[in-house]
Amino acid sequence: MTHLFSLPLFWAALTIAAFLAGQQLYRRTGNNAFIPPILTGVVLVVSCLELSGVSYQTYMQGGHYLNLMLGPVVVMLAVPLYQFIHTMRKQWLRIALAVTLGSGTTIACAVLLAHFWIGDDAITRTIYTKSITTPVALAISEQVGGISALASAFVIITGILGALMIPPLLKTLRMDEPQTLGLTLGICAHAIGTSRALELGPQQSAYAAMAMTLTATLHALVLPWIV
Amino acid sequence: MSGLLTLLIFLLLGSLLQTLLHLPVPASIVGMLLLLLALILRGKAPDNLQRITQTLSPLLPLFLIPVSVGIITQKQLLAEHGVELLIILALSLIPGALVSALIMRKGGKSGL
């Protein structure tokens, strides 16, 4: 058994299995945005590491194979972004303003709260990337001296909280028109918000996907200069 | 597979440009912007790129699991600040959501 646990391929295979289990659970629960496949996958892999006592370094020798794909996946975001440029032509100004100011506000609040309440420099640097989709958040977090393991947790938790809080919040304030709700979910809750938007309707989901991609691109360009 | 090759070539171009110009932006983002520029110049997204996008997109969470599992190296930090962090993440969402929603609505009314 100990020998098996030391093989990188074992951990690569286990990660894929954990992801498939997460996908199954997500589908069986009717694509519930609150249990995204990545959450289940991470919980399963972490449990296996805890039970077997294997270190993260050993795990990562196998996890590395999958991790390598993050680079090309970020490059791939150009394809949906290109398609959105066509659809957003008519509303580009307010979409650009909503993305810039909305995401700027949520980040400024989080950074200020973290700075004055916790005061740990690495945490503050990491929280900057909380509202952007995980692959981009990881790349930037490394660039600005944050903790990438923590960045991913912040992003996933933000996504779940956003998917949970934003639809009832906007509904109470009677601001839940499909385009507004979708855009807000994409800006504040990235991919998890977008999967929630998918449940709400096609217009919500298109605006959420567009807002998520625009927010990630904007932050990737701006954050490295200001953090 | 030719779509994947295109992505890798643009990632390489992104790395080269980032190193040459000492850009603080991650190489993958530089590659993404170069590809976006190429698509705009070309006027359409080629089929092979659309195919690889459809293949890779559903697998995205899988590629993110290994780094996310790194959270187990941060146990001490979470034990110390976990509750504060959760509250910060929840609270900071509200003003952001309100600003986004207000701009999108007002813009719609004034025909922006």
Tell me about this structure:
The complex is a heterodimer of chains A (227) and B (112). With 227 residues, chain A is mainly alpha-helical. Chain A is built from twelve helices and no strands. Chain A is globular, with a radius of gyration of 18 Å. In chain A, helix 2 crosses helix 4, helix 9 packs parallel to helix 12 and helix 10 packs across helix 11 (178-200). The longest helix of chain A has 26 residues, at 92-117. The termini of chain A are far apart. Chain A has two domains: 2-68, no CATH class; 76-226, no CATH class. With 112 residues, chain B is mainly alpha-helical. Chain B is 81% helix and 0% strand. Chain B has helices spanning 2-21, 27-42, 47-56, 60-69, 75-109. In chain B, helix 1 crosses helix 2 and helix 1 crosses helix 3 (47-56). Chain B is extended. The model of chain B has no long low-confidence stretch (mean pLDDT 88). The chains are: A mainly alpha (227), B mainly alpha (112). Chains A and B meet through helix 2, helix 3, helix 4, helix 5 and helix 6 of A and helix 1, helix 2, helix 3, helix 4 and helix 5 of B.
